[in-house]
């Protein structure tokens, strides 16, 4: 199999037939018309007629494969399932709402096969979304994602992406991590990542399934990936260091308080009781915080060392 097109959908019954025909036309009239390809629909708990439409199309279209979830699990779960089922050497993901153009498929495929990229991420340079509700938050979100991930991608959340087969078979998606597949792939050792300006179209049917809360969740997920990528196998390096630093500050403050009191007593000068000094409580808090952070790092190390995949490493190649 040369190409797998993975499409996650939720209540998109109006667009499915048009999207499928558009995909077939885009491939059959391009330079990749002779490739073997499959279209994998992942029905993420739709409550409309989407599954019936897919089932009807599949009867007369041998390219179509489909999976239906019993309930809505989210896009990451849908893509993870689609990646597991995909047999193509190149996997392209896209949304089912007709905002992603199938006419981009041939060039995305060529960039993976001929140019040798691991991932080609779509960039909706000109968007047709609500400026206040989507465009501005999206720009801020992508700027943050670039700074944290180190990837110079302008549209990390674009659903239209192309992957080499090895990439999607080597990573795991969960929660809402579908936004950060390039970052996850980079942490797994796949560094040939680029982007391509793609056409973005206005939504033709239905309405968007995402609200502003996705940006908050997205930033939290980004912090999680950054931490796991940097300290996932060595939690003591961050918690232990922070704990030692806080504990050291607490000890210094404690010595200052005691020294100040002893000096005042030796000279017969008035002094405040230790428990009446704000510095005493600051020292106490830093000591407790330092101990808790160090203990957290220690527990993290125990969990990490008991993990079954603690010594699993991504091997690129081997001889004999």
Describe the structure.
The radius of gyration is 27 Å and the shape is elongated. The longest helix has 31 residues, at 236-266. A seven-stranded mixed beta sheet has the order 3-2-1-4-6-5-7, sandwiched between helices. It contains ten helices and seven strands. The model has no long low-confidence stretch (mean pLDDT 86). The protein has two domains: 3-231, Spore Coat Polysaccharide Biosynthesis Protein SpsA, Chain A (Alpha-Beta Complex); 236-306. Strand 1 (3-9), helix 1 (16-28) and strand 2 (37-43) form a beta-alpha-beta unit. By secondary structure, it is an alpha/beta fold. Helix 9 packs antiparallel against helix 10.
Q: Topology, please?
A:
Elements: E1 3-9, H1 16-28, E2 37-43, H2 50-60, E3 64-68, H3 75-85, E4 90-95, H4 105-113, E5 119-123, H5 131-149, E6 161-164, H6 165-169, H7 181-187, E7 193-197, H8 213-231, H9 236-266, H10 278-306
Parallel strand pairs: 1-2, 1-4, 2-3, 5-7
Antiparallel strand pairs: 4-6, 5-6
Helix pairs in contact: 5-8, 9-10
What is the fold named in CATH at topology level of the largest domain? Spore Coat Polysaccharide Biosynthesis Protein SpsA, Chain A
Order of helices and strands: EHEHEHEHEHEHHEHHH
| Strand order of the biggest β-sheet | 3-2-1-4-6-5-7
What overall geometry do the principal axes of the alpha carbons give?
A: elongated
Q: What is the helical fraction, as a range of percent?
A: 40-55%
In DSSP terms, counting alpha (H) and pi (I) runs of 4 or more, how many helices? 10
CA gyration radius, whole angstroms? 27 Å
Major beta-sheet overview: 7 strands, mixed
Instruction: Tell me the domain tally.
Output: 2
Number of strands: 7
> What is the percentage of strand-forming residues?
5-15%
């Amino acid at each position: 199999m040369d190409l797998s097109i993975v499409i996650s959908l939720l209540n998109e019954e109006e667009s499915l037939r048009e999207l499928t025909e558009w995909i077939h036309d885009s491939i059959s009239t391009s330079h990749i018309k002779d490739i073997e390809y499959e279209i994998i629909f992942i029905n993420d708990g739709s409550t409309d007629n989407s599954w019936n439409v897919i089932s009807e199309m599949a009867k007369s279209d041998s390219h179509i494969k489909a999976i239906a979830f019993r309930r809505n699990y989210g896009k990451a779960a849908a893509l993870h399932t689609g990646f597991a089922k995909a047999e193509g050497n190149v996997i392209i993901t896209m949304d089912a709402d007709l905002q992603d153009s199938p006419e981009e498929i041939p060039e995305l495929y060529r960039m993976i096969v001929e140019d040798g990229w691991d991932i080609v991420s779509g960039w909706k340079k000109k968007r047709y979304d609500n400026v206040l509700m989507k465009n501005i938050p999206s720009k801020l979100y992508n700027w943050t994602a670039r700074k944290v991930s180190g990837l110079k991608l302008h549209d990390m959340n674009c659903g239209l992406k192309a992957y080499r087969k090895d990439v999607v078979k080597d990573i795991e998606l969960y929660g809402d991590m579908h936004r950060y597949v390039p970052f996850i792939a980079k942490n797994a050792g796949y560094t040939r990542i680029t982007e391509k300006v793609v056409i973005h179209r206005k939504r033709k049917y239905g309405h968007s399934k995402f609200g502003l809360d996705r940006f908050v969740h997205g930033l939290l997920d980004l912090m999680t990936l950054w931490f796991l990528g940097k300290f996932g196998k060595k939690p003591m390096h961050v918690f232990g260091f922070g704990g030692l630093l806080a504990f050291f500050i607490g000890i210094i403050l404690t010595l200052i308080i005691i020294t100040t009191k002893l000096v005042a007593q030796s000279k017969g000068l008035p002094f405040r009781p230790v428990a009446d000094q704000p510095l005493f409580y600051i020292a106490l808090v830093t000591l407790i915080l330092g101990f808790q952070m160090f203990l957290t790092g220690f527990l993290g190390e125990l969990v990490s060392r008991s993990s079954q995949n603690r010594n699993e490493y991504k091997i690129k190649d081997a001889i004999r």
